[in-house]
Amino acid sequence: TSQPLPPKEKTLFNRILKCYEQKQYKNGLKFAKQILSNPKFAEHGETLAMKGLTLNCTGKKEEAYELVKRGLKNDLKSHVCWHVYGLLQRSDKKYDEAIKCYRNALRWDKENLHILRDLSMLQVHMRDIEGYRETRHALLQLKPGQRAPWIGYAIANHLLKDYTVAFKVLEEFGKTQQNDYYLFDEEMVYEHSELLLYQNYILQEAGLFQQAIEHLETNKEKIVDKLSWLEYKGDLCVKLERLEEAEKIFTSLVNRNPENHSYYQKLESVIKPSNEVERLQIYDAVSAIFPKADSPKSLPLTFLTGPMFQERVDKIMREQLKRGVPPLFVSLKPLYKEQEKVKCIGEIAEQFIRSLEANSKFSPDDEEIEPPTTLLWARFFYAQHLDKIKEYEKALQLINESLEHTPTLIELHVLKAKVLKHLGDTAGAVASMDEAQSLDTADRFINCKCAAYMIRNDMISDAEETAAKFTRENVSIDEYLKEMQCMWYEVACASAHSRANRYGEALKKCHEVDKHFTEIIEDQFDFHQYCMRKMTLRSYVKMLKLEDSLRSHRFYFQAAKAAIKVYIHLHDEPYQPGDRIQDEKESSMSNAELKKLRNKQRRQERKKAAAEERKKNEQHDKSGKKNHTDTILINPSFCNFCQISNPLEQAQKFLAPLELYCSGKFETHYLAFQIAERRGTLLVMLRALLRAQKVAKESDMPNLHVCRVRFAKK
Amino acid sequence: MGQIKGVRIELGGITQHNIKQLKRLNQYIFPVSYNDKFYKDVLEVGELAKLAYFNDVVVGAVCCRVDVHDGVRHLYIMTLGCLAMYRRHGIGSVLLEHVFKIAKSQGSFHSIFLHVQINNDSAINFYKHFGFEIVETKEHYYKRIEPSDAYVLEKRLIPEKSA
Question: Which InterPro entries match (chain A) (predicted)?
Answer without folding.
Answer: NatA_aux_su, TPR-like_helical_dom_sf, TPR_rpt
